[in-house]
Write a structure and sequence with these properties.
The chain has 15 helices and eight strands. The strands form three sheets. It has a three-stranded antiparallel beta sheet with strand order 1-3-2, covered by helices on one side. It has 520 residues and is mostly helical. The termini are far apart. It folds into four domains: 139 residues; 89 residues, Ribosomal Protein S8, Chain: A, domain 1 (2-Layer Sandwich); 121 residues, Hypothetical protein af1432 (Orthogonal Bundle); 74 residues, K homology (KH) domain (GMP Synthetase, Chain A, domain 3).
Length: 520
């Protein structure tokens, strides 16, 4: 671009010189005097000098520009040559590296081919040795068959039989030792935790009746309660939802109802009616409404007292109402609210010993039977109802799982769920905590002894401690010491699979060998 500028300046200078020359020639004829001629000459000389100066400067600028461009081009050529040389050097280095790698790969390939050939030779040698060994084995087996008069299958069966007999004894002894060791360690730890829990908490359990009895001031009150043509008693039974039983027993009447809260509300209403003395349908409805409101307050207070006793925070008010209803519910004669509080205390103590969340363990223990407060109203078992209530009122997953798993309906996912099972068993299965009908008790004892007598080698068995222990006497000629442990485990497994029982059953197998001789 600079060269073009210089050439343009030269052309302009030449053009100006030509113009000035033409102008001078054009105006010469008009100048008549010498002065004009001199001026014209001067103008021409000045124009020529100026044009020459411009031309000279333009040439100098053009040469300078051309020189600069030449230097720049030479520098660029040198740089490009350096780049090309560097690239060639890198390519040569890379080519040498590739050649070395290629050579190494060829060496490895040759080595692998050599090793492959060696392995194939070894495999061929091993196959030949295997064939020779099989021939020798066949020869030895044939010789053994000739000597022992037994086939290979018969010899194998005999060996397996002897090995099985030997291993059965060894396995039984090994299992016995391991079981004893595990039981000792587990029992020691469990005994310490449970002993601490029981020593820190002790609670009486009152067995409630399924009916309520109302005392009357006199037998004349029975007639007033019945009313003319049974009007009052019909109104009472219809409104209260209970059965009122009036018999020959003096000065008492009995209230019967499957719902303990309704039964207690009916008892309170009848007590209020007897004290008031005005027994008529209108007054019955008025006092029933008052007693029902009072019962709601009692239930709420019972739930709040239970939560406060345990120091549990943030329990939904509807759940507190359900907790209070447990006060009027019994299970096998055991008050469910007191049972739940006891389970909560035991869970908290055991959780503290194991380094778990004590409040969460108490919460799970208190709510594990919450479904029993509503299983009269909702469909499903108390476990299913309790889990639905816990989910509805936003209880944590630990509490929900403890409710679902405390009777084995679902597996326990958390350690706290297992603690609830242990505490529930500890509270419910201890002697005196729950009542059992005589018929069920006798049947359970008979089933226990029948299962034990069904095993081969058992001479007699005895159920002890209300069915919590069974002692099995065996025939010593049929059952040896090692087999005694296996028999105890088999009996234990069958009891677990076929029977339902509170707590646990201890199985003791007794083997006694007596040698008697009479001296005459």
């Amino acid at each position: 671009m600079e060269l073009g500028t210089a050439i343009a300046l030269i052309i302009v200078a030449l053009f100006l010189g030509a113009v000035i020359g033409v102008a001078v020639l054009f105006f010469v004829p008009f100048f008549k005097n010498k002065k004009a001629q001199n001026n014209a000459d001067k103008i021409i000389r000045d124009a020529e000098i100026k044009a020459e100066h411009i031309q000279k400067n333009a040439k100098i600028d053009a040469k300078s520009t051309i020189n600069d461009m030449k230097i720049a081009a030479e520098n660029e050529i040198r740089e490009r040559k350096a780049i090309v040389a560097d690239s060639e050097k890198k390519l040569n280095t890379r080519e040498a590296s590739i050649d070395r790698r290629d050579q190494a790969l060829h060496q490895k390939e040759n080595s692998l081919d050599q090793k492959k050939e060696e392995y194939e030779n070894k495999i061929e040698g091993l196959k030949k040795k295997e064939e020779d060994l099989q021939v020798k084995i066949d020869q030895i087996l044939q010789e053994l068959q000739n000597v022992s008069n037994m086939s290979v299958s018969e010899a194998r069966d005999e060996i397996m039989k002897r090995v099985e007999e030997k291993m059965t004894k060894e396995i039984a002894l090994y299992m016995k030792n391991k079981e004893e060791q595990a039981e000792e360690e587990a029992e020691t730890k469990a005994r310490d935790i449970l002993a601490l829990a029981m020593s820190k908490y002790s609670q009486e359990v009152t067995c409630e009746r399924t009916v309520s009895v109302v005392s009357l001031p006199s037998d004349e009150m029975k007639g007033r309660i019945i009313g003319r043509e049974g009007r009052n008693i019909k109104s009472l039974e219809s409104l209260l939802g209970v059965d009122i039983i009036i018999d020959d027993t003096p000065e008492v009447l009995t209230i019967s109802c499957f719902d303990p809260i309704r039964r207690e509300t009916a008892r309170m209403t009848l007590d209020a009616l007897i004290k008031d003395g005005r027994i008529q349908p209108g007054r019955i409805e008025e006092l029933y409404a008052k007693c029902k409101a009072e019962m709601d307050s009692i239930i709420k207070k019972a739930g709040e007292d239970a939560v406060n006793r345990l120091g549990l925070p943030r329990i939904h008010r509807e759940l507190i109402q359900y907790i209070g209803r447990l006060k009027f519910r019994t299970s096998y004669g055991q008050n469910v609210l007191e049972h739940s509080i006891q389970v909560a205390y035991l869970c908290g103590i055991m959780a503290a010993e194991l380094g778990l969340d004590q409040n969460m363990a108490k919460r799970a223990g208190l709510l594990h039977d919450i479904g029993k407060a509503a299983d009269f109203e909702l469909e499903g078992s108390h476990v299913e109802v309790g889990a639905r209530l816990a989910k509805k009122y936003g209880e944590p997953d630990v509490v929900i799982n403890a409710i679902e798993s405390h009777h084995g309906d679902k597996p326990a996912k958390y350690v706290i769920s297992t603690l609830v099972v242990a505490a529930d068993t500890l509270s419910a299965a201890r002697p005196g905590a729950r009542s059992e009908t005589l018929e069920n008790y006798i049947k359970r004892i008979e089933d226990l002894e029948t299962i034990c007598k069904g095993f081969d080698g058992v001479s007699n068995c005895f159920a002890m401690q209300s069915g919590r222990e069974v002692r099995v006497a065996v025939i010593p000629e049929k059952i040896d010491d090692a087999a005694s442990y296996k028999l105890a485990r088999d009996i234990r497994d069958k009891i677990q699979n076929e029977m339902t029982y509170p707590g646990q059953v201890k199985v003791s197998v007794i083997r006694e060998l007596r040698a008697v001789e009479i001296a005459k």
